[in-house]
Specification:
CATH topology of the largest domain: TIM Barrel
CATH superfamily of the largest domain: Metal-dependent hydrolases
Radius of gyration: 23 Å
CATH class of the largest domain: Alpha Beta
Number of helices: 13
Strand order of the largest sheet: 8-9-10-11-12-13-14
Distance between the termini: 50 Å
């Protein structure tokens, strides 16, 4: 049985530790695949009304993510916060024992349980055996401090798909995560179009200004004003832009100078039944984005899975040739997506730079690049990050 233990997640008002807790739940629920997460020790030293709802985001996001891994709370239980009662016993590997005793056994095995409220936001992942043995290691929810690690794909509250994004808090999450840099890359289509015109795909087959065109909204100024009022720091701004059926880019020329970084993405395919036609459409739209001048191709093949089609390995080399021709980086992205190891390995072998993008729609995702780093490690690239990752050069 695999058990993740979080000790002393001491919360003070506005420290955003609830999002680090949520990150741990996501990591152990989706990637490390723990059977159980135990939260023990001090929850907060404060007992104020302002702190009462600090776990609301944790529980609501956990429900939204539909994470099946149980979370057992053995913390102090202040009057002002409602927590699920812990079970009397937990069972795994033919062993049944009270959760508090399980924590104590893991504590003895690990030597010490690190305080989750420390700067690395460390947890312990323990694997118990039926013979009573316990192997444990520490897992940090902050990143290693590396100068090349930038999250180039972070959304804001202007995204229709935002869950709780907030620019100042996203910057604080970047600091807590120890990111070297961050780029806000908002959907340009969300800034120009209403929700039905964008999500129903009308934006890619009816152009603005034509007799049957969609109505253009004016949300761009709100995005730019929000960025202008953000705290200064190591962050960039840009757009994630779409392309329509004619190959026209969904970004007005007057707005292009507002961005320092442009991500291109194929979010829609008209053809969803015939794979060969879908492949040709995908290549046409991808080249239109690269030709326009995007620096990063976001989640390159995700659209095929979203369209109910198999991802086509036969397109890996043609896309890489396009990336090389236009000097564009390929983004590793785990948001509702599984990156293709073969494709990214070929990218590196072909001299195509890689970009890391959390595609954050929830604050806990800002800088959540742990899956990306593990992916690169599996490809044998961990020691080459400074040479394989794309960096913004100011051009």
């Amino acid at each position: 049985m695999k058990v993740a233990v979080i000790s002393n997640p001491r919360h003070t008002n506005g420290d955003l530790i609830e999002f680090m807790l949520l990150r741990a739940a996501h990591w152990f629920g989706e990637y490390e695949k723990a059977d159980l997460m135990l939260v023990t020790g001090e929850l907060t030293p404060w007992n104020t009304s302002a702190a009462r709802s600090f776990l609301s985001e944790f529980f609501s996001s956990l429900k939204l993510r539909k994470l099946a891994m149980p979370v057992v709370w053995l913390t102090d239980r202040p009057r002002w916060v409602e927590l699920p009662e812990p079970p009397a016993m937990v069972t795994g590997d033919a062993v049944e024992l009270p959760p508090a005793e399980l924590v104590e056994r893991i504590r003895r095995s690990a030597g010490k349980l690190p305080d989750f409220s420390g700067p690395a936001f460390e947890t312990v992942l323990a694997e118990t055996g039926g013979d009573g043995s316990i192997r444990s290691r520490r897992v940090a929810m902050a990143l290693p401090e590396l100068p090349c690690i930038t999250d180039f794909h972070v959304h804001t509250n202007l995204a229709y798909c935002s869950e709780n994004m907030n620019i100042p808090q996203a910057l604080e999450m970047a600091r807590l995560t120890r990111l070297a840099g961050l780029c806000f890359s908002e959907h340009s289509g969300h800034l120009y179009l209403d929700i039905p015109d964008y999500w129903e795909g009308r934006c890619v087959w009816r152009n603005v200004g034509t007799p049957c065109g969609f109505r253009r909204l004016h949300r761009m100024e709100g995005y730019c004003e929000a960025l202008a009022s953000a705290p200064s720091g190591a962050w960039l701004n840009g757009f994630e832009i779409d392309v329509d059926a004619a190959g026209d880019i969904m970004l007005l020329e007057e707005d292009r100078p507002r961005a320092r970084v442009l991500l291109g993405a194929v979010h829609f395919l008209d053809e969803r039944r015939e794979l060969e036609r879908a492949k040709r459409e995908f290549l046409f739209r991808t080249e239109a984005l690269l030709k326009y001048g995007v620096q990063i191709l976001a989640h390159p093949f995700r659209i095929f899975a979203w369209a109910g089609l198999p991802k086509p390995p036969e397109l890996y080399r043609p896309v890489i040739e396009l990336l090389k021709r236009y000097d564009v980086a390929a983004e590793i992205n785990f948001h509702c997506n599984e990156p293709e190891a073969e494709f990214f390995d070929l990218c590196v072998r072909s001299g195509v730079k890689l970009s890391l993008g959390s595609d954050a729609h929830n604050l806990y995702e800002v800088g959540f690049l742990h899956p990306h780093l593990r992916f690169l490690d599996a490809l044998g690239l961990s020691g080459r990050l400074d040479s394989i990752l794309w960096q913004y050069s100011g051009k």
